[in-house]
Write a sequence for this structure.
């Protein structure tokens, strides 16, 4: 039997080695290409993340500035006007006036000061609700029923437990719901608001629903109010979606427990 010589064996092996080398080279090139694309995607993702964070920060600052302007206007238009009126009544007081006239002016001045005190309490409550400070988030949500009663809206609040929220999370969650309630009062023409808080696996789910006229899809995420909500949700790595509710609007907000619990 004729044996294959070493040179002949190399001739037979050479094409196989060339194919293996080509495959290995292709794998290396593809791997480098994949790594390059992956790195590029990571850079793009980080850039988008940074842009999103900057956008959320800007929205948060804009929302805070809008809140400051609103408070400044409340102080100027309401308290400022009352103080100006009281100044006029004080300037009208005179010893030469009759006792009846003096008593009438004093009563008007006292009534104005009582109204100023009420307005200051209302502004203070908006800045930091006393019930939230003393009793926590769940009690603060319970107290919304009285606030909404004057607007003719029935508020139904359901929750599972007295959740142990972080103080900073309580403030932000209250502001989120406060903004949703404000939108309902101003724009929704609703009769009912339902607020539910429940634990679901490792998350806390806040469900907000009203039976008003709903939101137009093309303006759902516009306005400082919605930007403020998005910014506050992002502070705790949460997420939200606007669900189909038939009549009205339905917000579902999800937070990881680890980010908002003590």
């Amino acid at each position: 039997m004729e044996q294959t010589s070493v040179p002949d064996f190399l001739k037979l092996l050479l094409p196989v080695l060339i194919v293996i080398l080509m495959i290995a080279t292709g794998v290396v090139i593809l791997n480098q290409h994949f790594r390059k694309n992956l790195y590029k995607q990571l850079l793009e993702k980080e850039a988008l993340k940074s842009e999103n964070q900057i956008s959320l920060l800007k929205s948060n600052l804009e929302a805070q500035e809008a809140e400051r302007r609103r408070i400044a206007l409340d102080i100027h238009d309401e308290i400022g006007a009352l103080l100006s009126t009281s100044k006029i009544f004080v300037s009208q007081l005179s010893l030469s006036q009759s006792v009846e006239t003096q008593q009438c002016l004093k009563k008007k001045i006292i009534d104005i000061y009582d109204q100023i005190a009420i307005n200051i309490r209302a502004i203070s409550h908006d800045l930091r609700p006393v019930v939230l400070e003393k009793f926590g988030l769940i009690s603060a949500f319970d107290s919304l029923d009285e606030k909404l009663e004057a607007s003719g809206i029935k508020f139904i609040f359901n929750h599972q437990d007295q959740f142990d929220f972080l103080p900073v999370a309580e403030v932000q969650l209250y502001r989120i719901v406060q903004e949703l309630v404000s939108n309902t009062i101003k724009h929704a023409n609703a009769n009912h608001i339902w607020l539910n808080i429940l634990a679901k696996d490792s998350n806390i789910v806040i469900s907000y629903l009203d039976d008003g006229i709903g939101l137009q899809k093309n303006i759902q995420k516009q306005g400082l109010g919605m930007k403020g909500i998005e910014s506050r949700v992002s502070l705790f790595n949460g997420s939200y979606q606007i669900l189909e509710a038939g009549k009205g609007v339905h917000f579902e907000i999800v937070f990881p427990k680890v980010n908002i619990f003590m």
In short: Residues 1-6, 217-221 have pLDDT under 50 and may be disordered. Strands lie at 154-159, 192-200, 203-210, 239-243, 249-256.
